[in-house]
Amino acid sequence: MPPLNTSRPSPATFLLMGIPGLEHLHVWIGIPFCSTYVVAQVGNVTILAVVRAERSLHEPMFFFLCMLSITDLVLSTSTLPRMLCLFWLGAHDIAFDACLTQMFFIHSFTAMESGFFLAMAIGFVAIGHPLRHSTILTHACITIMGIIVVIRWVAFFSPHPILLKQLPCCRTRIIAHTYCEFMAVVKLACMDTGATKSYILSMASVIGPCDAVLVAISYAFILRSEFRLPSQEASFKAPGTCGSHVCVILVFYSTAGFSIFTHRFGKHIPAHIHIFIANMYFSVPPFLNPIMYGVRTKKIKGACS
């Protein structure tokens, strides 16, 4: 194995090792991940096609759902096909630039997913005020919210590949992970990376929890509005509807949060547990979102039937 250049990041390939300690189970582990990927692709593409074809669905919340579906498609496609090649074909090599590109899509679209969860929660709160709903969620408002989510992504997560591009990478080219995760790659640098790690972890530790808290507050307002409805049946349905949405959101934030805080505090957590859970936040939410937000929505089911 040739030594990497110590003065700048090498363009040589890295080696993704998968899940440490579970290499003998890679073929079997790949099966559920492949299943979730196929369902996520079919579900999200179907939602986009149905909303585009059915004019009655050209409403604010379905536009947000389309944004979330596009994010899910990109997030899952940027990780799972490459991971399945590793599990099933033993394709461990990944070029340096391809590694940085994958890292950019993973972290940026994870942040966008969080932003769209928050935008949808705010939209549900607005729907709870029917008299002002049309004046609150205008097309201009939806566009502005979408732009804010994208701008936040560009501002906070574009530096990821740029920072790594400047680091001399000379220790090893083995990445003990299933994909090019920032903290796993930055450990390969042969210089002090404390400031870089602190910046990235601080951004992730601020943005994620803030979004999660605001989403929780939004759903608290939604439940309060639903329970005040005169119809007793509507009040009984509210916990079930919100509960399914909250379950998806909890899976996303809990798995992403576990990965972030393990890098900072969980030094004694086994690597295979950390990596396995880290793989779930870009496979499970894209799989569940079309089911919880799409299949369980009466208008989408009606348009499909």
UniProtKB/TrEMBL annotation:
InterPro entries: GPCR_Rhodpsn, GPCR_Rhodpsn_7TM, Olfact_rcpt, OR51/52/56-like
Superkingdom as given in the UniProt entry: Eukaryota
Transmembrane spans: 25-50, 62-84, 104-127, 136-155, 199-222, 242-261, 273-295
Domain G-protein coupled receptors family 1 profile as annotated: residue spans: 43-293
Gene Ontology CC entries for this record: plasma membrane
Bilayer topology annotation: Multi-pass membrane protein
GO molecular function list: G protein-coupled receptor activity; olfactory receptor activity
Record keywords: G-protein coupled receptor, Membrane, Olfaction, Receptor, Sensory transduction, Transducer, Transmembrane, Transmembrane helix
Record localization: Membrane
Keyword Zinc-finger applies: no
General function of this protein: Odorant receptor.
Protein name (record): Olfactory receptor 52D1
Source organism: Camelus ferus (Wild bactrian camel)
Name of the encoding gene: LOC102522994
